[in-house]
Amino acid sequence: MKRFGRVAGLVAVAVLLLLTAYTGIVDGLDTLRSAANPLERAAAAGQLAYGGLAVATLLASAIARRWVLPLLLAWGAALTIIGGLAPVVWGEQGPAVGIFAGICTAGIVALVLWACRSHNRSMSGRSRGRTEAEAG
Questions:
Q1: How far is the C-alpha of 95 from the C-alpha of 85, rounded, in Å?
Q2: From CA 83, how far away is CA 112, in angstroms rounded?
Q3: What is the DSSP letter of 90?
Q4: Distance of alpha carbon 37 from its chain centroid, rounded?
Q5: What is the pLDDT of residues 40-55, one digit of tens each?
Q6: With 128 labelled, which of 15, 46, 98, 105 sits at a CA distance of 20 to 30 A?
Q7: Within the chain, which residues score under 70 in pLDDT?
Q8: Secondary structure element (H or E) that encloses residue 55, with its range
């Protein structure tokens, strides 16, 4: 049952990265074209950043695993900033709503990081177990 939870967490992380890659890039490009002021352009650039970082994280998970955590941290930072900025810039909400949205986004990012680290710990434990079994 533990294995199912780890696999489900990893699938959830991959799906979330795919979704944020797509929405960050597509919406970021569209928003950048229609941005009317510097704050809107900065928010659009942030969308493009978290979209690009999501793609980079997915690629790193396949070819350069040591880069996954740093890229995931950068993705989470960009997503959290834009998660707090978007309601203020486009939703015309006050700063309190933006702060609350940023905190909520940070909570989701923390869950993603937790799932990724949990998966990495289980994988490193397995590889150590194989190495010890081979040595014994």
A1: 9
A2: 15
A3: T
A4: 27
A5: 999 999 999 999 999 9
A6: 15
A7: 1-6, 119-120, 122-136
A8: helix 38-63
